[in-house]
Amino acid sequence: MERTQAVPPQADVVVVGGGVMGTSVAFHLAEAGADVVLLESGELGRGSSGKPLGGVRAQFSDPANVALGHRSLELFEEFRRRPGSDVGLRQTGYLFVLPTDDDVALFGRSVAMQRELGVDSRLLTVAEARRLNPYLSATTYAGAAYAPRDGWARPAAVVAGYADGARRCGASVVTSAPVTAVEPAPGGRLAVVTPRGAVAAPAVVVCAGAWSRAVGALADVDLPVDPVRRQIAFTGPLEPVPPALPFTIDFGTTFYLHNADARGSLLLGASEPDTPVGFDTTYDRAWEPWLRELAARATPALADAPLTGGWAGLYELTPDHDALIGEAPGAPGGARVLYACGFSGHGFLQAPAVGEAVADLYLGRAGTPAARGVDVSAFDAGRFGARRTRTEANII
Predict the structure, then answer these.
(1) Strand, helix or coil for residue 143
(2) Dihedrals phi, psi of 173, to nearest 5 degrees
(3) Over pLDDT 90: what percentage of the chain?
(4) How far, in Å, CA of 354 to CA of 376, rounded?
(5) CA distances from 2 to 40, 46, 163, 376 (A)
(6) Is the torsion defined by CA of 45, 51, 56, 58 positive or negative?
(7) How far is CA 194 from the centre of its chain?
(8) Rounded to whole angstroms, how far apart are CA atoms 285 and 134?
(9) Second label for 260, Cα 20 to 30 Å away, from 17, 34, 245, 248?
């Protein structure tokens, strides 16, 4: 059970959402000296952050996403020291397998940009890719892109590590406290109301994942985020036991796989097209034949692997499938509403760097030499009104 405490009556900043993003933001704010209250509607990490494993990578096509991923990798590598826990980080690399020559050319341009930003990525031949992942088809692909520093970690451990770190820095972490209203309060503050009490603060940060649109609306902030179900499946233990595999993604279909446990099980997944918007997180075994079709194309030896069930969670999608990070203009009474949401499948891997960046925004040091985090100005939600949508290609 989470350590539940009363809602304090006031704070410097209220963070709404107790997943990986909210706990990272809370930790970085509290570490910087802010009096922080984090509110979570249920238990920590039980929303989109509840997935069994989370990929971490810096391989993106957009420089701002590369910077967030690269900085987050550094912070994941330091996690044992700060905030101080083991998150099961395994750096087996990310391997994008590319079906066409045009895909190889696209990734060639991305790799050149990534390397300029300090990412050790490279293009591989199909033969080189198959040495890293022997399950790959020898005939389906034109090439691959690989970065050995990428990998995966355990989201639940990251959430717990950040929450514990935030508490040690003086933050209050309050679970079972859904936000029901955000109202103007005296002194240029906002009262964030829950069934367990209200907390007044001059700043609120919306980090509610797939629920961010509704939370933002309580504060009259438009956050175009929609929930969409994504599923993963697990194989039974395979013989022979699979080697340590890179997190492997078919760029053409979004089919992906990586090791699941030491018994020899693999995790398989893909983003289903035309999935309706909604909060349904029921695992539907009717999707498994479609997943097997993708596996037969990408990894023929796994097409008939025994599947033991799976898990369904929510992506928080924006119209251009890229994040919303910034501060909303015109909050009531001079209060401030910041947000970090809509990561469209990239939230876990970018959460450490986003926590730093939101602390910079809150403290007014973003864009100055005092900033500790990445420049996130490109992710402002105002881009949609200004018709400046983003074009990240490396999306699953």
Answers:
(1) strand
(2) -110, 110
(3) 88
(4) 8
(5) 11, 11, 10, 32
(6) negative
(7) 26
(8) 27
(9) 17
pLDDT for position 52? 62
Alpha-carbon radius of gyration of the chain: 21
**Residue 225 near residue 26 (C-beta atoms within 8 A):** no
Phi, psi of 338 (to 5 degrees): -105, 165
Nearest CA to 202 among 105, 89, 360, 338?
Answer: 338
Q: Do 7 and 176 form a contact (C-beta atoms < 8 A)?
A: no
Reduce the secondary structure of 96-139 to three states and give it as a string: EEECCHHHHHHHHHHHHHHHHCCCCCEEECHHHHHHHCCCCCCC
228: phi then psi, degrees, rounded to nearest 5: -135, 130
Q: Measuring CA to CA, which residue among 244, 253, 230 is closest to residue 148?
A: 244
How far is 290 from 23, CA to CA, in rounded Å?
35
pLDDT at 1 over 50: no
What is the 3 state secondary structure string of 176-232? Answer: CCCCCEEEEECCCEEEEEECCEEEEECEEEECCHHHHHHHHHHCCCCCCCEEEEEEE
Would you state the structure tokens that stand for residue 92, as one six-digit string?
A: 């087996």
Which element (helix H / strand E) includes 354?
A: helix 347-363
- Encode pLDDT of 238-269 as tens digits: 999 999 999 999 999 999 999 998 899 999 99
DSSP 56-103: E----SSHHHHHHHHHHHHHHHTTTTTT------B---EEEEESSHHH
Model pTM score? 0.95
Q: Report yes or no: 340 and 324 within 8 Å, Cβ to Cβ.
A: yes
- Which has the closest alpha carbon to 327: 339, 318, 344? 339
At which residue do the structure tokens 């909210």 appear? 22
Using one digit for the tens of pLDDT, what is the confidence trace for 158-173? 999 999 999 999 999 9
Average pLDDT, integer, range 276-298: 96
> How far is residue 150's CA from residue 58's CA, in Å, rounded to a whole number?
7
At which residue do the structure tokens 């990798």 appear? 73
